[in-house]
């Protein structure tokens, strides 16, 4: 737009001016300002003949050349009007040979199509790369810093999957509109790829202006988008980087902004983060873990610990197998760090099979009345081979099916619900017990309990932590237990850390307790000793509970 000699302008769906060539302002002066109505610049579009043709193009019709009435002493003029994704573009022509005018009009349209995204009307990836390099080359003087904001839509895939690609396209167009609405004059937005957008900000007071803009964009995406009458909530995560301090060329700056964007998503999404060197260090560590995890199993770095499950007053009824990773360089890596990596990299089938087989073999060394509980990752359901894998391991190890309890979280039931329910039903037919873990968090739905006969509900430790003092937690836990018992389902309370929590749960007839107060996770070699000695803490808690009654 800055370099063209054409009288070129673009208007949105509200007929308001969004972009224009500098030459247009030179001809029409003060009428050319962002937001000006098209008829303020071209009043003849209000006339019946011109208006009908203009509206036909505006509504998606083929381009048209509209003759404009000449002003006194002026040569004949015409306006070439063509539709864009967000409205129309206009090229005004004066005093030219008809053929050359057409050729130049076609050239401008082709240039626009080559540098703009067809769906959203924003400048495209090619244009973004050129503009970023130009911005980096121009740093200094009046542009001491260049700010790059990488914007990614949160949960966009869910909209495509549930409402269809047409709704997804509409969402991208609406999102582009919200981004443009937040920009000030002279700031450019781009559709980089898919649901990824970018903004280049020059000549501003940094970092304050970039962070202000990022905050405005995050807030703008907190409001629902309405698509076909359905409110859709899609947030935005934003990574910010500045040149030259975070990169002296476009590629370096993009990498820094990508790392900051990754940090924003890791921190919970729906937020903005500015690049710093510690982010790069964390990312490098994560990549190191990712590479190490691929060989951790064959190197014997993965192992299991077992936390006891206690039925009041003092019965050990089984153990839950807990996966651990002892990294040769970083020490023990928490499961909440490495399991998401394994899921993202497609390693959970192999790791999950090893955990299941190892836990079942260990359970064979216990008294036959004890069960072993094994957690399943949602990723293990994706291959469709889970039931075959479980059946093969049970046969190979020789353990009774009813001694195995598989724990799933509610997230398993969110993806491919019908297929996953079928998988659970098949496992149930094999005689395997199924437990719904972390109940009360995420997307709890009573329909799960109606559609599948779970053997156990495990109440999330979030509700147990303040059970002694918080009446709301007490009411929720009591309600879950009454609901489960009414459906013939056992209840296990996770995260029991104090005698007071144990007393309250025992008094309310909780079927099973689990937590460090009752028994910390044990190595395989310590299980036999634990089974032999009575869990006296539970006995005392039961006695105290009886005295209270």
From TrEMBL:
Stored Gene3D superfamilies: 3.30.70.270, EAL domain
SUPFAM superfamilies: EAL domain-like, Nucleotide cyclase
All residue ranges annotated as the EAL domain in the record: 286-535
Organism domain of life: Bacteria
Domain GGDEF, first and last residues per copy: 144-277
Family annotation (CDD domains): EAL, GGDEF
Annotated signal peptide: none
Name of the protein in question: Bifunctional diguanylate cyclase/phosphodiesterase
Taxonomy of the source species: Bacteria, Pseudomonadati, Pseudomonadota, Alphaproteobacteria, Hyphomicrobiales
């Amino acid at each position: 737009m800055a370099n063209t000699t054409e009288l070129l302008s673009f208007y949105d769906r509200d007929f308001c001016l969004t972009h224009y060539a500098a030459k247009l302002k030179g001809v029409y002066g003060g009428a050319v300002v962002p937001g000006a109505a098209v008829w303020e610049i071209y009043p003849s579009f209000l006339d019946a003949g011109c208006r009908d043709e203009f509206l036909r193009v505006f509504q998606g019709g083929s381009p048209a050349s509209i003759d404009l009435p000449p002003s006194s002493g002026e040569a004949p003029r015409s306006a070439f009007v063509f539709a864009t994704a967000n409205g129309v573009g206009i090229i005004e022509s004066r005093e030219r040979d008809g053929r050359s005018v057409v050729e130049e009009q076609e050239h401008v349209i082709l240039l626009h199509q080559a540098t703009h995204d067809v769906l959203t009307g924003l400048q495209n990836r090619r244009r973004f790369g050129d503009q970023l390099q130009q911005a980096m080359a121009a740093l200094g003087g009046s542009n001491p810093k260049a700010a790059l904001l990488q914007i990614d839509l949160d949960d966009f895939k869910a909209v495509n999957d549930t409402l269809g690609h047409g709704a997804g396209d509409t969402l991208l167009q609406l999102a582009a509109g919200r981004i443009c609405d937040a920009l000030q004059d002279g700031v450019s937005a781009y559709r980089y790829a898919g649901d990824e957008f970018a903004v280049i900000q020059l000549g501003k007071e940094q970092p304050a202006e970039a962070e202000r803009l990022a905050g405005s964009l995050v807030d703008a995406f907190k409001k629902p988008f309405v698509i076909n009458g359905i409110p859709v909530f899609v947030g935005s995560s934003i990574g910010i980087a500045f040149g030259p301090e975070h990169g002296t060329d476009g590629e370096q700056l993009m990498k820094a902004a990508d790392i900051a964007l990754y940090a924003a998503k890791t921190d919970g999404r729906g937020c903005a983060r500015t690049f710093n060197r510690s982010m790069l260090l964390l990312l490098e560590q994560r990549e190191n873990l990712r590479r190490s995890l691929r060989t951790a199993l064959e190197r014997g770095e993965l192992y299991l610990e077992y936390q006891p499950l206690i039925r009041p007053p003092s019965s050990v009824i089984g153990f839950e197998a807990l996966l651990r990773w002892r990294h040769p360089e970083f020490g023990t890596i928490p499961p909440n760090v490495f399991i998401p990596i394994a899921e993202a990299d497609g390693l959970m089938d192999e790791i999950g099979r090893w955990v299941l087989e190892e836990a079942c073999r260990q359970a064979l060394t216990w008294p036959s009345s004890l069960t072993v509980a094994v957690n399943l990752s949602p990723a293990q359901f994706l291959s469709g081979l889970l039931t075959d894998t479980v059946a093969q391991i049970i046969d190979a190890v020789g353990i009774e099916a009813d001694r195995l309890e598989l724990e799933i979280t509610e997230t398993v039931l969110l993806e491919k619900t019908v297929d996953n329910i079928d998988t659970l039903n098949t496992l149930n037919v094999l005689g395997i017990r199924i437990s719904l873990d972390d109940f009360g968090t995420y997307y709890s739905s009573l329909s799960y309990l109606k559609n599948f006969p779970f053997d156990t509900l495990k109440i999330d430790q979030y509700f147990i932590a303040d059970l002694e003092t918080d009446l709301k937690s007490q009411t929720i836990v009591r309600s879950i237990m009454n609901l489960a018992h009414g459906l013939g389902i056992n209840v296990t309370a996770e995260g029991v850390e104090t005698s007071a929590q144990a007393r309250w749960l025992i008094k309310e007839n909780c079927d099973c307790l689990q937590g460090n107060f009752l028994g910390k996770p044990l190595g395989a070699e310590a299980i036999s000793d634990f089974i032999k000695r009575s869990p006296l803490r539970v006995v005392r808690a039961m006695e105290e509970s009886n005295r209270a009654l």
